[in-house]
Each structure stands twice: as structure tokens, then as C-alpha cells.
Amino acid sequence: MPESVPSSLIIDAFKEIFQAERRGAKRQDPLGWIISVPDTHQKSVLAALDKERALRVLTCSTEDDANAVAAGLYITGEPVIVMIQHAGLFASVNTIRGISMDGRVPIFYMIGLLSREKDKDPKDSRHSMVRFAEPLLDVFSIPHARMEGPDDLHLISEYYRKSRERKGPAAVLVGLETA
Q: Can you list the alpha helix ranges (DSSP code H) found in the chain?
């Protein structure tokens, strides 16, 4: 059965990723960037990030903006993670295709599955956005995994690296609302 992942563990995973990216670099501040669009599914992470001094958070009004900002930060050598909800995935498919896939910009996404039922596999959800999120990623050959609890935290760094290795998008879907 899936369980919520505490925001502190997610933020620690972000820091570890960014520390590895910054190893040997002259510039260490900020450690990395989190680009978000207001997200109720991962709100505990975003609230905790507001108190975090080592990481910078930039809130965008749309997922298209978030993709463009993430690409700009990557081009300037800044480590970046994009946090969105599944609705934003659907809304920004063309931008993800154009910037991250065709432009070969490695962008790692944390995608919240808002309204995901705890007792159902997403493919069996009565909510179409939950049900179609993974198939949509499959259609575009975007590597992805589902974070179903604290034991899956390793997926964050694994899929972040995957985005870098393939020079394109990769995603971790956040199964339940973060704690």
C-alpha cells in the first residue's frame, strides 16, 4: 500500500543531488534550484522549501514557463528540478517535447498525482488525469517511476541522473500527497 513521503526526506534527496552536481565547482550558492508551479499535492515540500536557505525556489505561473526557466538555468550550469502536478504535465506536453526532448535539455520532473486513490493502482483510477499520466509519459518515451513511499526515495536521484545521461526529460510521479 502506498504511503506519503515526508517532505524533509525529499528535500534531503534534492540537496544530495545538487551537492553531487556542485562538487568541485567554485559557485556553491545556491546549491540548486526548484522550479515549481503551485502544487497542492506536494505542498508540504514547497512549504518546507520556503524555509530552506541552501536551495532557491522559483514559482512560475504555468508549466510552460517552468520548462523555459529550467532550460535557461541548465544552460547556465545551474542544477534544477521541476515540480508540477499531473495537470501540468498534460498542459505542457508541447513545451516538454520542444525544449527537453527536441532541444535535448535534461529536465527532471517531480509530478504529483493529485486525487490518486490510495487503494488503487493509478491505471485503475476513476480520475482520468491520474489514469493517463503514465501512459502519456510512455507515448513520449519519457523514463519515469512512481514514488510510493520512503523506500522509493532513491528514484529521485536515479531519474535525475537519467535525465542528464539521456539529455532529455525524466520523471518521478509522486503517488500520494507528501507529508
A: 7-22, 43-49, 63-75, 86-91, 93-95, 128-139, 154-166
Please state, as a whole number, how many other Cβ atoms lie within 10 Å of the Cβ of residue 102: 10
* Residue 23: pLDDT band with limits 50, 70, 90: confident
**Contact, 41 vs 174, CB < 8 A?**
yes
Which secondary structure element, helix H or strand E, spans residue 174, and what is its range? strand 170-174
Task: Give pTM, 2 decimals.
Answer: 0.94
Residues 118-167: tens digit of each pLDDT: 999 999 999 999 999 999 999 999 999 999 999 999 999 999 999 999 99
Other Cβ atoms within 10 Å of 28 Cβ, number: 11
Contact 11, 157 (CB under 8 A): no
Strands 144-147 and 170-174: parallel
3-state class (DSSP) for residue 126: coil
CATH of 7-174, one of 3.40.50.970, 3.40.640.10, 3.40.50.450, 3.40.50.300: 3.40.50.970
| 3-state SS assignment for residue 105 | coil
Domain ranges of the chain: 7-174
